[in-house]
Write a structure and sequence with these properties.
With 396 residues, this protein is α+β, with helices and mostly antiparallel strands. The protein contains 2 helices and 35 strands. It has 3 domains: 122 residues, no CATH class; 129 residues, no CATH class; 119 residues, no CATH class. It starts with a helix and ends with a helix.
């Protein structure tokens, strides 16, 4: 009986979350450059229901073996797995203002790729937007409507001095003093790595490496003296790779597949460059000079054992290689203008939101009905429980 409560309640919660996302889309119909968000709903694992001992199979000596008959699968509810923006080109609206820009996508090299204006956040980090509703601040810098600096292709702020400037279709700004600046147009191959922060801003988040041991990915560690190497098994993605995890002096995580690991003067396992080798919990490893590592990555040092961190990254294209090391590619390393990515800049235009109001309203009504249906189911279970407690269980 209680399973029904949880199933209906999870349905209500998932529809409530969908309604929140749809309402937010609807409220941003007129926001330039806004990208509609959509939710992905997943079901919890199904349970196989069987009727125990409903049949008996005859055996020798007049005996019987209890036999269960299958009833079917029981769904245990659903949940909102993630919310993702929909990166499709919005329609253009002419404004006539020189500080309004719109990006028109050409035939991009990858169907999952997308183009953005690059802006600087309050803390100096990079953010990305399709909202070209810019203005010029009191110091003559080109900024967004929320005060974020618009950057050129070198990551520098663009100082136009006034609103009297022109931008050609290639994104080259002709400044009043006769100089030029190229708009920082960034291109990324995978839209799924962008997280919507509000105000039509997105931040880039690379894929998170997975614990290869916990995921049961096949690998083997070989040791030759202080040298450790990973031999990959059959990985789930041809672009993926297995790595040892290291931590540099700044605390940044880097990766390597083959290295000489030594014990430093403080007793920590490091590589030749002084980077700390990490265990699977992300901590530094202390070991004796005579440590050994088995093929499963278990380090034996005296009586202590610790699991070496072996991580799987699903997309090595997102990693920058520097010698024998890899690290997450910084956002400024995105492909930009001049690298075979076709686009066009329209000055005096704004890209409109790609929200379809009619479709969104229809989805909102449908979501409301689904929420209401789950609510009725929950009420029915509640009524049944009330009968069970207050009537059936009464002693007469």
């Amino acid at each position: 009986m209680l399973r029904g409560y949880y199933t209906a309640a999870s349905g209500m919660l998932s529809q409530q979350r969908r309604q929140e996302v749809l309402s937010n889309n609807m409220s941003n119909v007129l926001t330039p450059g806004y990208k509609a968000e959509q939710t992905t709903v997943r079901a919890f694992p199904e349970m196989l229901i069987e009727r125990m001992e409903s049949h008996k199979l005859p055996v020798k000596n007049s005996g019987h073996i209890p036999f269960s008959s299958r009833i079917g699968a029981l769904n245990t509810g659903a949940y909102v797995h993630e919310t993702l923006p929909t990166f499709t080109q919005g329609s253009l609206r002419e404004t006539g203002f020189s500080t309004d820009f719109a990006i028109i996508n050409g035939e991009l090299p990858d169907e999952n790729g997308y183009l953005f204006f690059t802006v600087e956040n309050e803390d100096g980090t990079l953010r990305y937007t399709r909202n070209g509703n810019f203005t010029v601040d009191s110091e003559g810098f080109l900024v967004t409507s929320h005060g974020h600096y618009v950057l050129d292709e070198n990551g520098e702020r663009i100082q136009t001095g006034s609103e009297e400037f022109a931008v050609n279709s290639s994104g080259v700004i002709e400044l009043g003093d006769g100089t030029t600046a190229n708009l920082g147009i960034a291109y990324y191959l995978d839209q799924s790595n962008f997280v919507h922060e509000g105000n039509s801003l997105f931040r880039f988040e690379p894929d998170t490496p997975l614990n290869a041991r916990a995921q049961n990915f096949p690998f083997q560690i070989t040791q030759a003296g202080n040298n450790l190497a990973i031999e990959n098994g059959e990985l789930p993605d041809e672009n993926g790779g297995l790595f040892f995890a290291l931590q540099n002096e700044e605390g940044e995580i880097q990766y390597t597949q083959n290295a000489d690991f030594v014990v430093d003067e403080d007793g920590f396992l490091t590589n030749g460059a002084g980077f700390y080798v990490l265990n699977e919990r992300g901590g530094r490893i202390q070991a004796d000079a005579g440590y050994t590592v088995d093929e499963n990555g278990v380090i034996q040092s005296g009586d202590d054992e610790v699991n070496l961190a072996v991580v799987y990254h699903p997309n090595m294209d997102e990693l920058d290689q520097a010698g024998a090391f890899w690290q997450h590619a910084e956002p400024e390393d995105a492909r930009a203008i001049g690298e075979g990515v076709p686009f066009q800049i329209k000055q005096g235009y704004l890209e409109q939101s790609n929200v379809n109001p009619e479709r969104t309203m229809t989805e909102m009504l449908r979501t409301y009905r689904l929420f209401e249906m789950n609510q009725q189911v929950l009420k029915a279970y509640d009524k049944s429980m009330d009968l069970a407690v207050n009537r059936i269980a009464q002693l007469r």
